[in-house]
Amino acid sequence: MWDFLVPVCVSDLVKTGGINQYVVQDVVSPKQLPSHLNGFKAALRSQGPLCILEHFDTCYSVLKHCHTVDLNVKEDTLELLIQVVSGLSVSLPALLLNASLSAPDRKEQLNAVKMSVFLLCKLAEIIESDSYRQSIKGKAAGEGLLQWDSERETVLQALIQLLQLDIRSLWSLSLVEEEFISCVTCCCYKLLENPTINHVKSKSTRDAIIHLLGVQVKKYNHLLGASVKVIQLLQHLEQLSSVCAQAVAVWSTEYGVKAIVGEVMREIGQKSSEELAREGSGVKAFSSFLSELATLVPDIMIPNISVLLTHLEGESPSMRVAVCEVLGEVLVKVLSGDGLDESGKADRDRFMDTLQEHLHDVHSHVRSRVLQVYTRIVNSKALPLNRYSEVMGLTVGRLMDKSVNVVKSAIQLLAAFIAHNPYSCKLSSADLKTPLEKETARLRELREKLQANAPVFESYGLENMSGHYGYTGGYASKKTSSNLISSVPMCSFFSAGPDQDVSENREDLPLTPQKEGVEGGGKDGVEDSELKKQEMLVQYLRDTESFALQVEAAIAVINSMLYWKTTSVVQEAVQFCVTVCEFSVANSLTGVRKMLPLVWSTDATIKDAVVQAYRRLYLNPQGDSTRAKAQTLVDSLSELMVDASLGTIQCLEEIVSVLPFSVVQVLWERFTGKRETSSLHRRAAVLLLGMAARAEREVVLSNLDTLCSVALAEKVTEDFLLARDSVITVCNITDHVRQAKGAPFRLPQDHQLFTCLTRAIAEGVVMEDPHWQSFMEQAVRLIYFLAESPDQICSCLLQRCSRLLLDQIAEVPAVSCLSLAQLLSLCGCVAFWQVSHLERSVSSELRRRRGETEEREEKAKGPSSKAKVSNESSVEEELGLMGASADDTEAELIRKICETELLADENLLCSFLPLLVRVCSSPGRYSHPQLTAAACLALSQFMMISPSVCEEHIRLLFTVLERSSLPIVRANAIIALGDLTVRFPNILEPWTQNLYTRLSDENPSVRQTAVTVLTQLVLKDVLKVKGHVSEVAVLLIDPQTHIANLALNFFNDCGVFNLLLHLCVARMTCPLAVSVFRQLFSYITKERQTESLVEKLCQRFRTAKTERQWCDLAVSLSLLSMCERGLKRLQECWECYSDKLTETGVYQPLLSITAKLRRGAKPQLKVLTGILVIFISHTFSLNLVANPSVSSHRDDSFVTPKPTRKSSKKPVVTFSSDEEEEEEGKSTFWVPPVCLALCFRGNDWCGGWLQSKHFRCHAL
After folding, report:
1. Taking the CA atoms of the chain, what radius of gyration do you get in angstroms?
2. Which residue in 610, 802, 837, 1222 is deepest, having the highest Cβ count within 10 Å?
3. Residue 1173 burial (C-beta neighbours within 10 Å; 0-12, 13-18, 19+)
4. H or E segment and range at residue 1257
5. b vs e for 900-913, b when ≥16 Cβ sit within 10 Å of the residue's Cβ?
6. Which residue ranges are recorded for the region named Disordered (predicted)?
7. Helix 388-398 and helix 523-560: axis angle, to 10°?
8. In sequence order, what are the residues at sequence separation of 6 or more whose Cβ sits closer than 8 angstroms to the Cβ of residue 605?
């Protein structure tokens, strides 16, 4: 009988073969194929799978005409072939067990197997190609070929069932021919190339392909072929990295072929750096493959991991990342726990050392991924205790990394350290210092005692306690940590008093190996065991203290990152703060409070992160009942509100919006005193009620009488802070907090609330309570927000307070300066809020009434009049006059009231203005600090009323600013003048210089106030910063760090780049001007900015008038971090500064630029820099020769001398070779040939330089 040989190419079957080799005899035409397939189908039903021997030519014809036959023909053929292969899978097991099977029958079965498998694999490849082409054209894969995805899996399952049988016995000597194996494997690899093989819907197909190839690898000696093919697939199809990793893992575990892991790893390990550097080398796929494989079979990779370590020294960062991730998975899943032998411990330590080295890798991506590997190790509790301190220190150092991704990964690792540490991180280093000293002293006593008893004593160091503390092999696992804590009772130890001995806590320590050896050995054995236990305790305390110090350092650094410009870093910092707070780490609340102002961030992501963090920490109460949850929520919020500033309260209002009724009820109980609580918690409760009132007014309005009787009644003078917070709460029910439509919500003048407020203010004005001032300001504000006719209430209040002060003077001849200061503060506050009331409340009410009147008039008019009005209004809209006339009339009315009525003789406020002027203008007579400060602030508030008052007293206010010896007065004056500048900019404009002068004030608080106010004025475009940049720049080197940071924020907000030009041409008299410039230029990090700044500074040489300005510009250029692009721009602007090279102060800085550029530069850049040096040096020499009167040593106050040159023609520099003579009247100098070659090698910028009118080349 003939033999069927699996061909390499399908067309080989029609060629004449060897002896007894099957050759296709009849290739059926496409039209006849349906009838022949029907015959094949009938034969299959009658004869079984062996009918393929007779109908092979029909199926071969389908392959031959695959591009022309109908899809139905392919589908029918595929179905028939699947039935044949499945039939062989059913019939062959019995035949293979039959030992008496004849040779012809065996050959017949073998031919049927090879024919059917060959046809099925080839047809599957063809259909797969057609499906892929249709998907590219936009059609669904099943549109042309119905249900191919499901049929694909059926084909694979049929092949698996057949090839799992021991069909090797059908071949002679059980040697399966290579062509047969390749036929099946090529089909599998073809199917793997499908782009959708990674999708979830293709999981069953993917698994079937992997198992089919696994059968080939295990039974048919496809190991080497599979390893080579895996490398090829990774090299050309990056998306198959996870599939290949899964396949190799299945082959090595389920099929027991572990050698394939080593083969693939060796193939990757032998890749050189040059190969991996080439495009299309598949380095990313190799990296992903190794990382994925390590997560699946890390134990199998260990014997061959050495072949990958060579890539750690290579240039590919992706491969270094992959190897580090492999090491991490091995450390987590294999080399962890306490049961490691000596070899395992050595491997673990070596791998740990390798990872630590790459925390300082040159590539940021590698550093970031190594930190992520360590995060996984720490989260898995696989990091040895003896490495905690070292790795923690390295991680804290990575917080200063330039890469944002590295910083984020470092923050995540630190959070993992805190979440899984074996120490007591709830205690700070300060709390641990005293117990450590105490236990160290006890350890010293024990050692001295033993030395006294035994002259020869073998001390026990750390190596003797490794079995308990884990410094050579222990891990921070749950088991080890529990043993350690049981041996060192930290909770009871740290809860003991400062004088309480902890010896009673040591009785339950576990029996150490040394103790077991000497048990029963008498007193010496007991003392020896006690010494070892004490050594363990001291070492544990030392490590805990070291860990606490590192955590504190990390918290301090990460807290500063909360205000970075990088959103992702801020998010990680916020999450870290939440983590340390949840684990009750010492000083953790610092970051939580610091991030609170971020609720006002313009970045929605940051704002949401902060809001979610606070809700997670404070608004997610735990409890068994609603009442218990409400109590927990109130307790947590109260702790946050205790001693909170006004800014903190405003931030919390943005987070705490709606509170449940049960929480509101508990808050009222605390405020009213029904539950025993402190005054701080009562204030916190009333402030929280105010936050709830912002969303629902009735929370406070329905209990307003209760609030007045508790906080504003007769005992109000005992606690002005509670009264102030209560007033703030009531302010939240006013229309100024919410956008209200309709008539404004106000209470009558005789309401109990205003009676209580006026009484409290009047009684406190003659008292010496430090908190009365803040209460008074909030109370007056509330009166103007909520009362009908608030001016009448405040007029009566001023009269009442004045009368009380006069009565006090009558009793005591000397007036109290503090009482007078408080009265003046009240006058200023009333004046300020009266103006605000007119411009906001009265003005808006006039507009509202006008709108209602217009609506009523429109309704009263008929349709005809409406049409006429609409025509007139359309004309007004086109001219832009719609509503402008009425608004201007109302604004003019308010301005007239402020100008003529508020300070009229019959008005009460007018009576206080002369007193304010007298106190401010007589600092020698009225020297009381609080009185002077109050009078100055009140005078500025009176000046806000009208331009005439402001213009009349502006000189006095600036005199106070300049001459007052009190820093608080100067600071208040700056704030007041900032407000006046916004309100009356034209009046304050001539006095701008006086405001900038305060930036150099001797007092830090005044400088801080000045830079803050000026920053706001510049940002609001009220002031122009030109001409005054130098005064702000000096603050960059201020000894006070917070002032320097404010100055830096000024430049960042106003634009460092835009302000630098004004600063560089300004003559700074500060002796530290160079330090200021260096500090500013350090923030110019982009090459594009450097290039632009170089160009603009060079252009400024043209407009500079004096030699001093030339030198300042040259020094500014030298302080820049010059780059190659900056050098190019410096060369292109040669004409701007070449004629200024008569001065040493210009020449030396320019030379320093070239010196810095040549350090570590590339050879070509060094040559070009050398050319620039030659040009600068020679031009300087020529200018000195042409102008010998110019001295190289000049005074700081020099000016540009008059020109002494006879000719204005510039000297011409010519290049000459050694053989040529110099032309008469032209200066020449030698340039190295290599420089000239580079200049004329098509280098556009250098060649353009040489072709300029200044230089001429004679010989090249």
Report:
1. 44
2. 610
3. middle
4. strand 1255-1257
5. eebbeeeebbeebb
6. 501-526, 844-874, 1189-1219
7. 10
8. 567, 571
Q: What CA–CA distance (Å, rounded) separates 565 from 585?
A: 27
The tokens for 587 are 């000083």
Determine whether 196 is exposed, middle or buried from the number of CB atoms within 10 Å of its CB (0-12, 13-18, 19+). middle
Checking if the pLDDT of 869 tops 70, the result is no
pLDDT at 1186 over 80: no
Per the CB < 8 A criterion, the answer to whether 209 and 230 are in contact is: no
SS (H, E, C) 648-712: HHHHHHHHCCCCCHHHHHHHHHHHHCCCCCCHHHHHHHHHHHHHHHHHCCHHHHCCHHHHHHHHC
Distance CA 182, CA 179 (A): 5
| Residue 447 or 1187, more confident | 447
Q: What count of other Cβ atoms lies within 10 Å of the Cβ of residue 65?
A: 16
CA dihedral 419, 422, 426, 430 (to 10 degrees): -130
Tokens of residue 422, six digits: 């074996």
Element (H, E) at 1227: strand 1227-1229
Terminal-residue alpha carbon distance, the chain: 87
pTM over 0.85: no
**Contact (Cβ atoms closer than 8 angstroms) between residue 169 and residue 96:** yes
Residues 1208-1212: what's their mean pLDDT? Answer: 39
Q: For residues 1125 and 1116, give the distance between their C-alpha atoms in angstroms, rounded to a whole number.
A: 17
Tokens of 396: 């804290």
- H or E element at residue 1226: none
As a whole number of angstroms, the distance between CA 296 and CA 290 comes to: 10
Rounded to 5 degrees, φ, ψ at 1030 are: -65, -35
Identify residue 1067 by its one-letter amino acid code. Answer: R
Strands 1227-1229 and 1213-1215: parallel
Is the model more confident about 879 or about 471? 879
Q: Are 254 and 220 in contact (CB under 8 A)?
A: no
| Cα gap 397→1174, rounded to integer Å | 44
- 345's CB contacts (< 8 A; 6+ apart) are 472, 473
Residue 442 CA to its chain's centroid (Å): 47
Is residue 765 within 8 Å of residue 772, measured between CB atoms?
A: yes
DSSP annotation of 8 reads: S
Provide CB contacts within 8 A for 460, sequence distance 6+: 514, 528, 531, 532, 535
